[in-house]
Design goal:
Helices cover 24% and strands 30% of the residues. It has 10 helices and 19 strands. A hairpin with a 4-residue loop joins strand 16 and strand 17. Keywords: Isomerase, Metal-binding, Zinc.
C-alpha cells in the first residue's frame, strides 16, 4: 500500500511565519506555523490524499511520529521520562481524566527524539553543562547579587544542579532571577564575554521572549548547541532540552509525555520534573554521520524509530521495507514507487506512507527526502 499524506501546520505561538512556507515554495499564511505531523497520533493524525486519516489505516499502532518543526521563538524547556518512569507515572495518575490540568503523563511510553537541521543553522539548548564551565560563564556576567547567589548554589552540595533547579523553579527567588537576567542582558550588550559571547547572546534572546521567566536562568545551565544543515541531535530520556530557532525534521517515539522546566505559560510540576531529570552534566554529541552513497543514516540507541536522509541525483534509490515506512520530501522533485508499480509524487513538505507488506520502495527524482521507519 502506498498513500500520500498531508497535514495542516499547527499554530503554536513559537512557530515561524515563514520557514515552512519557504520550504514548500508558497506564500506565508500570516499565522505562526510550528509543526506538521506525519503519523497516526490521536492528537493530529495525518490526512490521506483522497479521504480519511492515517490512524484509520494503522489503528494507531505506529511506534514513531515524524514531524517538520519550524521555530521562530524558544520552545519550553522540557524533559521526557524513561519507559519505567512513564509506566509508573501513568499508573499513579490512573484516576485523573486525560484533560485534567494536573496530569503529567498522557501515556505509558518514553519519548526519545531526534532532530535534523534543515535550515542553515538550528539552535538548541541540550543537556546540562559541566558546572565548572557554567562558573566560567558566570564570570562574564559580573558579581551582582543574583549572579553571586547562583554561583553559591553551584559550589556546594552533592547534586548541585538538581538543588539549583529546585531553587530557581521553587517560586521564591524572583528578585535573584530578575537580577541574573539583567546581568545577561548587560553582558550581551557589551559583547565582551569572549568564548561565551554566542551563548550569552542566545540566552539574552530567550530573555527578550520570556522576560522574568526563571527558565531563562535554567537555560544558563544548559549546553548551547548550534547545528548546521544535515546535522542532528538525539535527545534521550531524562535530558533537559529546548529548541530555540530553526527548521528541522524531527522524529520521536509515539508519546506525549512532557515535563516542563520553564519558558512556558503551561503548568510546571517542579517535584515531578526533578524526579526524572538527569542532572549528570555532559555534552550532547552532534550527529555528523558520513553519507554512504545517496543515503545518510542517523544511528540512535532506541528501537522506536530510524531515520535516513536520501540525496537524489537522478538515479533511483531502492530500500527494503522493514515495517511501516514514511518518505518525507524536503527539496526538489521526489517520487516513490512500490514493487507493484504504484507511483506517487511527493511534493516538498508532504509525505508518502508505505505499508509493511510492501517488500521494497524505490525513490526517484532530483532532490532530498527523509525515510522514517521502526528502529533497526
Amino acid at each position: 500500500m502506498l498513500l500520500s499524506l498531508t497535514n495542516a501546520p499547527r499554530d503554536y505561538a513559537w512557530g515561524s511565519a515563514s520557514l515552512l512556507a519557504e520550504l514548500e515554495g508558497r506564500s506565508p499564511s500570516g499565522a505562526p506555523e510550528a509543526e506538521v505531523w506525519f503519523g497516526d497520533h490521536p492528537g493530529d493524525p495525518a490526512d490521506i490524499d483522497g479521504d480519511g486519516t492515517l490512524d484509520e489505516i494503522t489503528g494507531g499502532t505506529l511506534p514513531y511520529l515524524l514531524k517538520l518543526l519550524a521555530a521562530a521563538q524558544p520552545l519550553s524547556i522540557q524533559v521526557h521520562p524513561t519507559i519505567a518512569q512513564a509506566q509508573q507515572g501513568w499508573a499513579a495518575e490512573s484516576g485523573k481524566g486525560l484533560d485534567d490540568p494536573t496530569r503529567n503523563y498522557r501515556d505509558d511510553n518514553h519519548k526519545p527524539e531526534l532532530i535534523v537541521a534543515l535550515s542553515e543553522t538550528f539552535q538548541s539548548l541540550s543537556g546540562l553543562r559541566p558546572v565548572s564551565d557554567t562558573l566560567s560563564l558566570l564570570d562574564a556576567l559580573g558579581d551582582g547579587a543574583g549572579v553571586s547567589a547562583l554561583r553559591a548554589h553551584l559550589t556546594g552540595g552533592a547534586d548541585v544542579l538538581r538543588d539549583t533547579l529546585s531553587w530557581l523553579l521553587g517560586g521564591t527567588v524572583q528578585p535573584q532571577v530578575d537580577d541574573i537576567i539583567a546581568s545577561v542582558t548587560a553582558a550581551a550588550e557589551r559583547a565582551d564575554a569572549g568564548e561565551w559571547n554566542t551563548t550569552i547572546q542566545a540566552i539574552a534572546g530567550v530573555a527578550d521572549t520570556y522576560p522574568g521567566d526563571p527558565g531563562v536562568v535554567v537555560a544558563l545551565l544548559m549546553n548551547h548547541v548550534v547545528l548546521r544543515r544535515g546535522e542532528g541531535l538525539f535527545l534521550r530520556a531524562g535530558l533537559l532540552h529546548a529548541y530555540l530557532e530553526g527548521l528541522g525534521v524531527e522524529i520521536m517515539a509515539a508519546s506525549d509525555n512532557v515535563l516542563r522546566g520553564g519558558l512556558t505559560p503551561k503548568r510546571i510540576d517542579v517535584a515531578e520534573l526533578l524526579s526524572i531529570v538527569d542532572t549528570v552534566p555532559s555534552e550532547v554529541p552532534v550527529l555528523r554521520p558520513a553519507a554512504d552513497g545517496a543515503i545518510t543514516s542517523y544511528p540512535v540507541p532506541v528501537a522506536d524509530f530510524a531515520l535516513d536522509r536520501v540525496t537524489l541525483t537522478g538515479e533511483s534509490v531502492v530500500r527494503a521495507v522493514a515495517g511501516p515506512t514514511m518518505v518525507l520530501a524536503t527539496a526538489g522533485d521526489v517520487a516513490v514507487e512500490t514493487e507493484s508499480g504504484t507511483v506517487r509524487t511527493v511534493p516538498v513538505g508532504t509525505a508518502a506512507f508505505v505499508s509493511a507488506d510492501e517488500p521494497e520502495l524505490r525513490l526517484r527524482g532530483v532532490g532530498e527526502a527523509f525515510i522514517a521507519a521502526p528502529g533497526r
